[in-house]
Write a structure and sequence with these properties.
Mean pLDDT: 87
Strand content: under 5%
Helix content: 55-70%
Distance between the termini: 67 Å
Shape: flat
Structural class: mainly alpha
Largest sheet: none
Order of helices and strands: HHHHHHHHHHHHHHHHHHHHHHHHHHHH
Radius of gyration: 31 Å
Number of helices: 28
């Protein structure tokens, strides 16, 4: 394990001392003759067979391959020499042959081979023509390093800090780094919490959290290291951002009611002189604790900020505190301060989610709001029965833009979902019109199909089946066929429509077959 300053360099400074072009070839390691050395004058009786087995590993696939590999693993020193010799032949083995040799070398568990595995991984990733291919290369070579355990920690750490590698590759390797690190060393990684590139920082915290969740002893070590780091950074203005990250990490990792820590979070959350980032972290941290002290603290912060909403910082703190409270508590505060009509979209949207609603008029008023998140939140509160007027208003919002429909796709989809929550007899006709309309966005038509299948009863399922039978465009047909698999029970009309698509020479047939298997696990009911 590197010293803390070296750890910081890997994520914060992100070394780039390796070429971004083709990486330097990694020299094949030699096997340490001092290790497991044979007495003078004696030769390993397996040495000649090892060369033959190395060739078999490269060329065969069946029983001979398995037997040769097993013999090589039983004789690691002679096997390593033979396999490394096979790598060095001219002409060099191709990529597939090379991978086979390295797979067996990895199984031998020889630490001196780790740099070669790391070099192969880096070479494959850097040479990949796209991010997708880079991830495929990573998954091909990653197990070789992971299999070496703690011996490969330093090599993986170096790869994490390599700016020539795609960020997603580095993020996945960081996950391996934490998994491979010995339990007693995990506390030292706290030095990186709150530092470095955002994606890597978040991945580190998730990975440490997973290790701590699995192992109580690891949690104790990590919590102790986090507490120490919090104390070290608390009074340093240059470390304000890291202090906030440590508070949130510490709160997320705590599973029991830590009243001392909650008291500290409350003090920081209510301290108007504290940096904004610190107060935000403290409020979010309080949201992790489900007990009265945390709820009281959140209520106090929300009420104090709502009474003096003259800054954006205060608005954000009030919103975070309300969002962390149970819905009933947040709803009471939202009603008390009239947030349903607030001009600030995040507060109005939150109020629409949790506050008591007026008897009537609230939906029309909310759908006139200029902010899409407010309109979407209002639609999320719709419950049946909706009434004829309510259904008409939802149908308009979900319909074509040329006819007054929603400009925002997420809001339009929320309108379709709201129709699904109306009583089936009220909304089925509106959903069927959306399903059949070529003027409606494809996503809304598919969402209408989902709502009909899930909430429209047999008549709704049949409506989607008839739409599938009406020969819609291929992509729409495939999605209609996929939607039918969520039917509570098959109908004869749905089964017939799906069976009719089995002869299609495209993905619609495959999807129809999968849906039939789901609806009829004992065998599809298709004639012939």
């Amino acid at each position: 394990m590197l010293a803390p300053t070296s750890l910081i360099a890997f994520l914060l400074i992100a070394p780039a001392n390796q070429s971004a072009a083709v990486p330097t070839p990694v020299a094949e390691p030699s096997v340490d003759d001092a290790e497991s050395a044979q007495p003078p004058g004696e030769r390993d009786p397996y040495a000649e067979q090892a060369a033959l087995d190395a060739e078999t590993v490269v060329t065969d696939n069946g029983k001979e391959y398995l037997q040769a590999r097993a013999r090589l693993v039983e004789h690691p020193k002679a096997a390593a020499e033979a396999l490394l010799d096979r790598l060095a032949v001219v002409p060099a083995p191709g990529p597939a042959q090379r991978k086979r040799i390295l797979d067996v070398l990895a199984e031998l568990g020889r630490p001196e081979l780790v740099p070669m595995f790391a070099g192969e991984l880096r070479r494959a990733v850097v040479q990949a023509p796209s991010n997708r291919k880079a991830m495929e290369a990573l998954e091909r070579w990653r197990p070789l390093l992971f299999a070496q355990g703690e011996a490969a920690v330093s090599a993986v750490q170096t790869l994490v800090g390599d700016r020539d590698l795609p960020m997603q590759v580095r993020s996945n390797l960081l996950d391996d780094w934490v998994e491979m690190t010995a339990s007693e060393d995990l506390g030292s990684l706290i030095v990186l919490v709150g530092r470095g590139q955002v994606q890597l920082r978040q991945q580190l915290q998730r990975a440490l959290g997973r290790r701590a969740t699995r192992d109580p002893s690891v949690r104790e070590r990590v919590l102790a290291a986090a507490d120490e780091a919090i104390e070290q950074t608390a009074s340093d203005p240059d470390e304000a951002s890291r202090f906030a990250a440590l508070l949130q990490f510490r709160a997320a990792l705590t599973t029991e009611s830590d009243r001392r820590f909650v008291a500290r979070l409350r003090e920081l959350a209510e301290d108007t002189s504290a940096p904004f980032a610190t107060r935000v972290a403290a409020v979010r941290g309080l949201g992790h604790f489900d007990h009265e002290a945390a709820r009281q603290a959140l209520t106090q912060v929300a009420r104090a900020e709502l009474e003096h909403l003259d800054t954006q910082a205060g608005e954000i703190l009030a919103w975070l505190a309300l969002d962390a409270l149970p819905d009933a508590d947040a709803g009471r505060l939202a009603a008390e301060h009239g947030l349903l009509d607030d001009e600030r979209p995040r507060l109005a949207a939150l109020a629409l989610r949790v506050a008591p609603l007026p008897q009537e008029g609230w939906l029309d008023a909310s759908l006139e709001n200029p902010w899409p998140q407010v309109r979407q939140a209002a639609l999320g509160r719709v419950e049946g029965p909706c009434g004829r007027k309510g259904v008409a208003r939802l149908r308009e919002a979900a319909g074509p833009r040329s006819n007054g429909g929603e400009d925002d796709r997420q809001v339009a989809r929320a309108a379709v979902q709201a129709l699904g929550r109306c009583t089936p007899d009220e909304a089925r006709g509106a959903l069927e019109k959306l399903l059949k309309s070529d003027d409606v966005d494809v996503e809304q038509r598919v969402e209408a199909a989902r709502q009909l299948v899930r909430h429209g009863g047999p008549a709704g399922i049949d409506a989607v089946a008839k739409a599938l039978d009406g020969d819609p465009p291929r992509n729409l047909a495939r999605r209609f066929a996929a939607t039918l698999r969520f039917a509570p029970a098959p109908t004869p009309t749905a089964t017939k429509a799906l069976c009719a698509r089995l002869d299609d020479q495209n993905e619609v047939a495959r999807t129809a077959r999968q849906t039939l298997t789901k609806l009829h696990p004992d065998g599809a009911q298709c004639e012939g």
